[in-house]
Design a protein that fits this description.
The complex is a heterodimer of chains A (about 210) and B (about 375). Chain A contains 8 helices and 9 strands. Chain A is an alpha+beta fold and about 210 residues long. Chain A has a 4-stranded antiparallel sheet, covered by helices on one side. The longest helix of chain A is centred in the middle third of the chain and has 12 residues. Chain A is elongated and about 70 Å long. Chain B is an alpha/beta fold and about 375 residues long. Chain B has a single domain, classed as 3-Layer(aba) Sandwich (Arginase, Chain A). In chain B, helix 6 links the parallel strand 3 and strand 4. The two termini of chain B are about 35 Å apart. The model of chain B has no long low-confidence stretch (mean pLDDT about 95). Classes of the chains: A alpha+beta (about 210), B alpha/beta (about 375). Chains A and B meet through helix 8 of A and loops of B.
């Protein structure tokens, strides 16, 4: 999944010479929290609703006025992402630098913006039920070929795997959460157990065998 | 006046001998009711027309169902949920699905035209079918067609879905419509098909607040279910004030069900059915339409629905099942069947019961808190 798949575009921007009041009004009207600041078509900084509120607060050691210019308050230079970056890389940068968004630039052109909310959307898309599906959780030894065997089990039965999430477990194992195109996850789990897989969900019900 | 709707053509909705949504369940049920009740005389509904189906489904989807039914499956069938998986296409599928839709539509008509107050449709309840997609054994959404009719008759509809799976098809078809309140109680989508039905799925646009979902923890049993059901169902009635109730009475939350993980007994079903019928008496002048739904333990599902048949008529259910019927079907199915209508064998005690109850009750509170402001109860 790439940045271009989850970013928002077109982007609402503001110029360096605009006032904080104008920036505030624009964000309020558009229901957004981040404004890339542009000059001659290039991104030169970023300003957020929090920047504006803190800059103009009475609690600020050096308060700005609503008439101060955006370029006095904006953060510059700005960290940007490329549309072809994988989302996990954008997420890592945003987490490491503790920032809420990155403008997406292609060469010098601003083509989109990715925010924390877009990353949550990506997480939902990667893990959630986009299509009606059943959930199966299998613990596999963290060794070559194990996942292939699991996938082959579903392929042999003509069951489509809608999504697959894997994460490491203790003792050299990997947990695999699959969303499969079937209501009959219990029957599939039974087959998996017979084939020697360790199925964590659905569990066996002793009384309905 | 109570009416029962059924016809043998329902048995043509058949995905094949190894499929869990087996027509044998209806065959067993109708034979059982004939033997238990000499007065069992269900009304035979007409088949729904193509236009009836088009009230809730996309034409491009209906066309593909028809083509597949006539042995000309289009290459993109799988994109419409009709591939080789849960809901495989079969010859005559379109006509079979329209028989079931016809039954639910006829039931809704009897109620809207005042011919009956309570109607039991002995079939249907295909709540997973979506606008342009078959899903989870469901081809056409008979419930949505019935709701559509009731809305056209000017009624506000409270849809109650006690099937163990989330009633996603019906929910999405009326997600923006404040004239229909959909209430679905189901095993949490975290663990069970179709994966949706979270407590914060509450509707969109003008329909925000009119989709209610109570996801239940696996191994939820009778006592906790009755408690949370009463809490949300009573609020749904009082805050929404429906003109009619439509109940999807899936029986797959029973502990013997092979597809899911809740542990209800027939006793919970009896209390829930009674409280829904009482709710109708209090709020809708008794108007209620009931359909069947999922239920894949032949033994349990047929008993739950036979219970429903007696309760909806205000009659005392019999204790024992006819011996001849039982032996006949035990031979045919090659598996034992219970001798009594109510469960005698009960599920084992669940060790995590207090934890499960706490979780379900918290979710009931979350649900009521988040939808309350949209319904503006006085």
């Amino acid at each position: 999944m790439l940045v271009r798949d989850v970013m928002h575009s077109p982007v609402v921007t503001i110029s360096t010479g605009a006032t904080l009041e104008e920036a505030n009004t624009l964000m309020w009207e558009q229901g957004i929290r981040h404004l890339p600041v542009v000059e001659a078509g290039r991104v030169v900084g970023i300003i957020t609703d929090r920047d504006v509120r803190l800059a103009t607060s009475e609690l600020s050691p050096m308060p700005y006025t609503p008439q101060s210019r955006v370029e006095e308050v904006m953060t510059s230079p700005v960290l940007t992402a490329d549309p072809m970056d994988p989302v996990e890389e954008a997420a890592r940068v945003m987490r490491d630098r503790k920032i809420g968004c990155m403008p997406v630039v292609d060469g010098r052109e601003l083509v989109g913006i990715i925010t924390g909310i877009d990353l949550l959307d990506a997480l939902v898309a990667l893990t959630g039920a986009q299509l009606p599906s059943g959930r199966i959780e299998v613990r596999l030894p963290d060794r070559p070929g194990k996942l292939a065997k699991l996938a082959a089990f579903f392929a042999e039965r003509g069951v489509n795997i809608h999504s697959l999430l894997t994460y490491p477990d203790e003792g050299g194992f990997v947990r695999n959460v699959l969303r499969v195109d079937s209501l009959e996850t219990r029957k599939l789990a039974e087959g998996l157990r017979e084939a020697g897989f360790e199925v964590l969900w659905p569990p066996e019900k002793p009384w309905s065998r | 006046m109570v009416q029962v709707v059924y016809r043998p053509e329902y048995l043509t909705y058949d995905f094949g001998p190894d499929h869990p949504f087996s027509p044998l369940r209806l065959a067993m049920l109708s034979e059982l009711l004939q033997e238990l009740d000499p007065g069992f005389k269900p009304r035979a509904p007409e088949q729904a027309t193509r236009d009836d189906v088009l009230r809730v489904h996309a034409e491009r989807y209906v066309r593909r169902v028809e083509d597949a039914s006539h042995g000309q499956p289009p290459p993109d069938l799988a994109e419409y949920g009709l591939g080789a998986g849960d809901t495989p296409a079969f010859a005559g599928m379109d006509a079979a699905a329209r028989w079931l839709v016809g039954g639910s539509l006829a039931a809704a008509r009897m109620v809207s035209e005042g011919e009956a107050r309570r109607v039991l449709q002995l079939g249907g309840g295909l709540h997973h079918a979506q606008f342009d997609r078959a899903s989870g054994f469901c081809v056409y959404n008979d419930l949505a067609v019935a709701i559509h009719h009731l809305l056209e008759a000017g009624m506000r509809v409270l849809y109650v879905d006690v099937d163990v799976h989330h009633g996603d098809g019906v929910q999405w078809l009326f997600y923006k419509d404040p004239r229909v309140l959909t209430l679905s109680l189901h095993e949490s989508g975290r663990y069970l098909f179709p994966g949706t039905g979270g407590v914060y799925e509450i509707g969109q646009g003008g329909g925000t607040g009119y989709s209610w979902n109570l996801p239940l923890e696996p191994y939820t049993g009778d006592a906790c279910y009755q408690e949370v059901f009463a809490r949300v169902f009573d609020r749904a009635l009082a805050w929404f004030r429906p003109d009619v109730i439509l109940l999807q009475a899936g029986a797959d939350a029973h502990f013997l069900d092979p597809l899911a993980d809740l542990v209800f007994t027939t006793h919970a079903y009896e209390r829930v059915f009674r409280s829904v019928l009482e709710g109708a008496e209090r709020y809708t002048e008794g108007r209620i339409v009931v359909t069947l739904g999922g239920g894949y333990s032949f033994d349990a599902a047929v008993r739950v629905w036979a219970l429903l048949y007696f309760l909806i008529q205000g009659r005392t259910p019999p204790q024992r099942l006819p011996e001849a019927w039982r032996l006949r079907w035990e031979t045919r199915l090659q598996r034992p069947l219970a001798a009594e209508l109510h469960d005698v064998q009960l599920p084992p005690e669940v060790p995590r019961r207090p934890e499960i109850a706490r979780y379900n009750e918290s979710n009931a509170l979350r649900l009521l808190e988040v939808v309350r402001k949209y319904l503006n109860p006085s």
